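Worked example 2:
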Amino acid sequence: MPVAIITGASKGLGRALAEALAARGWDLVLDARTVEILKETAAALTRHGTRVTALPGDVTDPVHRSELVAAAWRLGGVDLLVNNASALGAEPLVRLEGLSLDGLRRALEVNVVATLGLVQEALPLLRASEAGTVITVSSDAAAEAYETWGGYGASKAALDHLAAVLGEEEPRLRVWAVDPGDMATDLYAAAVPEDGDPRPEPASVVPAFLRLLDERPASGRYGAPSLLEGR
């Protein structure tokens, strides 16, 4: 069975994607910092009959990243790495004049540095896979200027560029930066708690990710709304 590592997998988009992959027969290695919720997620996914390894931890910890890849190796390798774990840098978001530099460092550490660290750790197994794939979860804020989203957007813009260069350097892999669009997630609620407007559930954009896996287009940046419109 193919094997995927998904970070930030206890809830939101990470869990929704894990659910969809488990239903397709994928074995999974799941990461999140929330221990109990991650355990509940893993237990729920095992009903599909696939193997699920849940490893709570922080992706900024190199030991934890090594443990994730080692767990995937024990399941057979790494066919897909989904870098979904994210940090905002400030909760709620603030204008740049008030953004803590430590908060910005945290966003860059989680969203960019840890992602590259995990990619580096997983690259030998990704290269060995017949369909090695890396997905980095991007954001509208990486490409558009929204007030208060400067720190988070800058980190996601850096992540987009990292993914683009990785795609050039690893032509045998597929490397997709995917902007999922607006979603009702805890991350968004923490970013803009006063915004009560309804937003799509994360599960509604998962078909866009599955389409990429099915059709395997060239490495690049993709928007989930456009992928869904093209179904």
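The longest strand covers residues 27-32. Residues 101-128 form the longest helix (28 residues).
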